[in-house]
Amino acid sequence: MVDVYADEGITGRSMARRESLKRLIHDAEKGLFDVVLIKALSRLSRDTPDSINIVRTLHSHKVEVFSSREGMIDDELILSVISAVNQRQSEDTSYNISWGIAVKSKEGIFHGTPPIGYDKVKPGKLVPSVVHAPTVQLIFDLYLNIGMGVQAIANHLNDELGVLPSRKNSKKWHDSSIRLILTNRHYTGDLVQGRSKVDSKDKKFLQDNGYKKRHKIDESEWIVVPNHHEPLVTREQFEAVQEKMKQKAARMFRGRGRKSLFARVAFCVDCGAGMNFRNDRKSYVCATYQKNTSKKCSSHIIKHDALKQVVLSHLKDLLENSLNMKSLVDVTIQRAGIKKNNAVKELEKLQREISKLDKELVQLTRKWTSGDIDTDMFNACSVAVKNERQALEERAARLQTEIAHEHDTESRVSAFKAELMKFASLDVSNEEILRDMIHKMINCVDVHEDGSIEISYNFQNPLKQEA
């Protein structure tokens, strides 16, 4: 006995999360054993291709597979038939379980982990949690009546009240968990289940991830049992929260046109986070500050119009200098072309000289083999020819590098000229054009705590390298 390889609680329909099975195959490759004992083929895998591949892999490492139910596994035809039966049984079991859950859901039996604020008692009944129900009610009150946002509520629970989530291994509230609570219809007393279903046909997803893909179901097909359990909030409170969230989402959406002007361009210079646009303040603030307040970073707030004005000022300077720059660019291109042409001519001359030396060396060899010159003379002359040839080859290599460099310089400067001409013709008063220009031309805008900025451009000036 080498080891026991058991994947407990992991589906046999995929190898994605079966670490013990992967370890068994790895140990087989190392030759740690020569036979694998299994209770039944269904314990090895419930997927036909997986079963065949696993057995083939073990056999390729001279490891036999013995099942207490099926005996020695050495016939692939029998293996395929048994595996197909096991897979079909697994699919039928899965369907029966899903059907049973749907039937019991319609009867008002809750399945799964209860929402935060409720405890589950047999037979599948939800009852308010003495410990966590007040927290849920507080969250609704903070959002609806106090006016806090989801992140502000999470910070309030984490830092000021020290209330921990009810989930295991959860030590901190997040905006996403607050949002889930505020949109969960269970808190009105209705039992709502069957909001998604698995896709049993997508076997590739199952093989890659170890679980089935889920699809959301249209709300009209949900399984709803009204007034199933004691509510934590009234229907009027819940609907008011949904309406408020919709209005807030609409305001955020309307602000996206302006927000996108510097989205993924403006960053906090201290923490590196993006600068988020606040429509209510017409300003950009550090995302870290917005999420965690001043405990992690300061606001770095800068008015949208102020940021836009500074960036436009920088772009205007570039536009004003573009005409003078254009003449310098033309000179640089011409100079690079002349240097490259001269280098090409010299290289061609060197290659002709190297060819002559090769012929001289051939002639020397013929004279030596025919006895016209002795060995000492041949060695002296051939060394001289080879040394001269080596010097020419080294010079030729330097010229090739120089030609490549000048060609690169010519290409980069020509590209820079094209950018300048394109840039000079743009209408910066059109915000759509300005937005496109900013995202193409600017790499990042670093915003300092005092509101000053530094701009890093995407378009590089190769003339600085040539100077």
Automatic annotation (TrEMBL):
Name this polypeptide is given: Recombinase family protein
Organism ancestry: Bacteria, Bacillati, Bacillota, Bacilli, Bacillales
InterPro entries associated with the record: DNA_bind_recomb_sf, DNA_bind_recombinase_dom, Resolv_N, Resolvase-like_N_sf, SSR_resolvase, Zn_ribbon_recom_dom
Record's keyword annotation contains ATP-binding: no
Keywords, in A-Z order: Coiled coil
GO molecular function: DNA binding; DNA strand exchange activity
Domain Recombinase, residue spans: 115-251
Record-linked Pfam families: Recombinase, Resolvase, Zn_ribbon_recom
Organism: Paenibacillus chitinolyticus
UniProt entry tagged with the keyword Coiled coil: yes
SMART domains for the chain: Resolvase
Coiled coil: 333-409
